[in-house]
Amino acid sequence: MPDDVGEVWGDGGASAGTGEAPPFAGGGEGGAVDESVDIPGYTASPDPYTRFAHLCGDGCAPGGEPNECSSGDGAGSGPSSPTAQPMHCQLVLGEGDAIPSCRPVGRYAAGGPCHRGMDCAEGLGCAAADGQGGVCRQYCCGNVESCDPGTYCDERPMAESLAEGNTPVPIPVCVPAVSCELLDDSVCPAGLTCTIVREDGTTSCVVPGDGRADDPCPCAPGFVCSMLTNECKQLCRIDGRAQDCGMNAKCQGGSTIYPPGFGVCVSTL
Question: What's the whole-model pTM score?
Answer without folding.
Answer: 0.77
